[in-house]
């Protein structure tokens, strides 16, 4: 594992900004798995490197620590109920590799640790009383950093109180630590693959992350009948160009992972240097729509500040209406009308 400056320097010649982080580090620790570190090339502009090697640029911005107001929406110590029909459970603050763009810096890597049995029980009781919740996101941190026995307890508790509720397994471990998906771990997932399904939610940001090892890990879920969806974060210097995103989305779909969201960066402390302007994001979205099939196309999504919720960003095709017609622009810029009923 890469945890120190010396570990990084075994392979990389650090830039001034990277070097400077170590004299005043931000709260999100440096941790890179050996596997993910092996994907990095010794080039200051390497996109994989930008995702995980810290830089002093993280330390001089004053964005919010909790822009999605998750703390305000916490209903038990680890359960966030922001949307009526789905909720998110923070199973641990640990990850195998910390992403410098992490949107949950208020929590991730800060030593609150694995969810306790009491907090699992509290969440289960709440979910039992709130049947309107149809889907639960198991997130963090990364739930697969939990010991297998704790995962077993968690799944057992949730399945007992809500066998009808879909469980989303939100993990970056298939990208950063594929070797964790041992037969023993997959057996626990298989054991609870009854009733409402598990869904796998991955977090690939760059086509170079779709390695043989990583695809094999995803295939273990697919072979249990668990479908896979991907959430990408739009990141400056990592994937903010149409060629990279086109290749990423096509490879995801080819590997049976549906591109679900392309997230605009949240206004989180320490991530300003990785954010893309929304106008540039919209131009990318428009270009991608020309290049990708409907299935390969993710939804460009903004989680509005101050807990405003998620909205989809896309080019507006509606122009106007009169007494008899609605008017639209075609993707090529022509005009069409459609009658009112
Ligand atoms: C994004 C999010 C969800 C899930 O939203 P979907 O649009 O259904 O993917 C649930 N809870 C919280 C707190 C979220 O931020
Ligand atoms: S894997 Fe997810 S929770 Fe962990 S550091 Fe990355 S973005 Fe944050």
UniProtKB/TrEMBL annotation:
The superkingdom listed in its UniProt entry is Bacteria
Q: Name any cofactors this protein relies on.
A: pyridoxal 5'-phosphate; [4Fe-4S] cluster
Sorted alphabetically, which Gene3D superfamilies does this protein's record hold? Aldolase class I
- Annotated [4Fe-4S] cluster binding lies at 95, 99, 102
Q: Which residues form the Radical SAM core domain?
A: 91-244
Q: Quote any Pfam family the record assigns.
A: Radical_SAM
- Keyword Ubl conjugation (UniProt): no
Record's keyword terms, sorted = 4Fe-4S, Iron, Iron-sulfur, Isomerase, Metal-binding, Pyridoxal phosphate, S-adenosyl-L-methionine
MF GO annotations: 4 iron, 4 sulfur cluster binding; isomerase activity; metal ion binding
UniProt modified residues of type N6-(pyridoxal phosphate)lysine: 310
Record family assignment: Belongs to the radical SAM superfamily. KamA family.
Task: Please give the name of this protein.
Answer: KamA family radical SAM protein
Q: Which organism is it from?
A: Bullifex porci
The top of its lineage is:
Bacteria, Pseudomonadati, Spirochaetota, Spirochaetia, Spirochaetales
């Amino acid at each position: 594992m890469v945890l120190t400056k010396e570990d990084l320097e075994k392979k990389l010649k650090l830039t001034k900004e990277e070097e400077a982080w170590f004299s005043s580090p931000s709260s999100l620790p440096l941790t890179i798995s050996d596997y993910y570190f092996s994907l990095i090339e010794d080039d200051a502009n390497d996109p994989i490197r930008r995702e995980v090697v810290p830089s002093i640029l993280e330390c001089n911005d004053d964005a919010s620590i909790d822009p999605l107001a998750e703390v305000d929406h916490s209903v038990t110590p680890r359960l966030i109920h922001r949307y009526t029909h789905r909720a998110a459970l923070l199973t641990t603050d640990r990850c195998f590799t910390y992403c410098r763009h992490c949107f949950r810096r208020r929590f991730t890597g800060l030593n609150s640790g694995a969810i306790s049995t009491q907090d699992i029980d509290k969440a289960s009781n709440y979910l039992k009383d709130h049947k309107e919740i149809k889907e639960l996101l198991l997130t963090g941190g990364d739930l697969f950093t939990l010991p297998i026995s704790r995962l077993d307890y968690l799944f057992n508790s949730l399945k007992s109180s809500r066998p009808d509720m879909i469980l989303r397994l939100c993990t970056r471990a298939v990208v950063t630590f594929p070797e964790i998906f041992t037969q023993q771990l997959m057996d626990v997932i298989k054991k609870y693959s009854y009733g409402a399904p598990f869904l796998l939610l991955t977090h690939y940001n760059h086509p170079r992350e779709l390695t043989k090892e990583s695809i094999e890990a995803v295939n273990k879920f697919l072979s249990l009948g668990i479908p896979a969806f991907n959430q990408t974060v739009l990141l400056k210097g990592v994937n903010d160009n149409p060629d990279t995103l086109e290749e990423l989305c096509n490879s995801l779909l080819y590997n049976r992972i549906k591109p679900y969201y392309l997230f605009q960066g949240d206004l989180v402390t320490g991530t300003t240097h990785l954010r893309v302007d929304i106008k540039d994001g919209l131009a990318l979205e428009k270009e991608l729509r020309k290049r990708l099939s409907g299935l390969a196309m993710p939804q460009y999504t903004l989680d509005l500040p101050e807990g405003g919720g998620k909205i989809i960003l896309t080019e507006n095709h509606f122009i106007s209406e009169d007494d008899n017609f609605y008017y639209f622009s075609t993707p090529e810029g022509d005009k069409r009308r459609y009658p009112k009923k």
